């Protein structure tokens, strides 16, 4: 039934391969737990007590609450699917509550370091140098996800329309405007790329071997360049996405507009950035108000 469920997620729900893999890992881990000698049950026969025992085991193994809640969500979706298919009568996850989590504010780079990254760091004028700079500009200038970046094709960029079409989560397309600096960089990069002997690849950004980008390649590049301008602990492509949203909000952008640019399905996911802005407003208030 697990394979049947995963096929349903991939072919009918059209979830991304990464999301389907996450479901698979969670379900197989629970299946291993259920297959222990003292249980010897199939995953479809699990009861509420079994799921609670697994959650306790995960907590004892120092698995953080956020990860445990993701696993609970995976089980909840799986057993709801079994109910719909008339394979079980009672959903064993129905009474299971998610664990409390401390609120984590998005980590982002301040505006000045981001300006220094593009103004002070010297990028070579060859293919690799322009590719690295464009990679960073795309992440910070559009707020796209890592998975979206690596799948952008040259045909997705509309130079004259000053926009890019991105295929996001749940196979939804969205259009993101491009600023002039980014447009100029794309054209410059494409000119250099066109001079290479290998240009058959349709993807916009390529590795040094002219192959499609992969996640670890991008993560290493972002970490390398952010280390040159900031001391924040986390340096990842998603940090640039957070920086994009936070800087827009700090400069007065409408929250609904940021939601559309980020490709969030609901406003609640975008509202996490208001906490950063409120913190900034508090600092301004403390410095400026006579009574503060």
From TrEMBL:
The keyword Cell division is annotated on this UniProt entry: yes
Domain of life: Bacteria
Catalytic site positions: 145, 169, 238, 241, 264, 273 (o-(3'-phospho-dna)-tyrosine intermediate)
Tyr recombinase domain segment(s): 104-286
Any single GO BP term: DNA transposition
GO molecular function: DNA binding; tyrosine-based site-specific recombinase activity
Signal sequence segment: none
One Pfam match: Phage_integrase
GO cellular component: cytoplasm
Homology family: Belongs to the 'phage' integrase family. XerC subfamily.
Protein name per Swiss-Prot or TrEMBL: Tyrosine recombinase XerC
Record organism: Lacihabitans soyangensis
């Amino acid at each position: 039934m697990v394979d049947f469920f995963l096929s349903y997620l991939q072919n009918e729900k059209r979830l991304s391969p990464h999301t389907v893999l996450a479901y698979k890992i969670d379900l197989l881990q629970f299946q291993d737990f259920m297959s222990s000698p003292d249980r010897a049950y199939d995953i479809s026969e699990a009861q509420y007590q079994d799921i609670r025992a697994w959650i306790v085991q995960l907590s004892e193994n120092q698995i953080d609450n956020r990860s445990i809640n993701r696993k609970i969500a995976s089980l909840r979706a799986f057993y709801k699917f079994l109910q719909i298919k008339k394979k079980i009568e009672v959903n064993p996850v129905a009474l299971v509550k998610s664990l409390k989590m401390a609120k984590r504010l998005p980590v982002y780079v301040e505006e000045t370091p981001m300006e220094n990254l593009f103004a002070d760091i010297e990028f070579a004028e060859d293919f690799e140098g322009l590719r690295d700079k464009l990679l960073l500009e795309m992440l910070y200038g559009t707020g796209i996800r890592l998975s979206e970046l690596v799948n952008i094709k040259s045909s997705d960029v509309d130079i004259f329309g000053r926009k890019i079409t991105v295929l996001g989560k749940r196979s939804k397309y969205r259009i993101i405007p491009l600023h002039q600096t980014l447009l100029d960089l794309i054209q410059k990069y494409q000119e250099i790329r066109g001079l290479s002997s290998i240009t058959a690849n349709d993807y916009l950004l390529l590795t040094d071997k002219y192959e499609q980008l992969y996640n670890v390649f991008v993560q290493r590049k972002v970490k390398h360049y952010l280390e040159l301008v900031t001391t924040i602990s986390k340096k990842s492509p998603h940090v640039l996405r957070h920086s994009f949203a936070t800087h827009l909000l700090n400069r007065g952008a409408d929250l609904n507009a940021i939601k559309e640019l980020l490709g969030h399905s609901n406003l609640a996911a975008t509202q996490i950035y208001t906490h950063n802005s409120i913190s900034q407003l508090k600092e301004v208030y403390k410095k400026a108000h006579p009574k503060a």
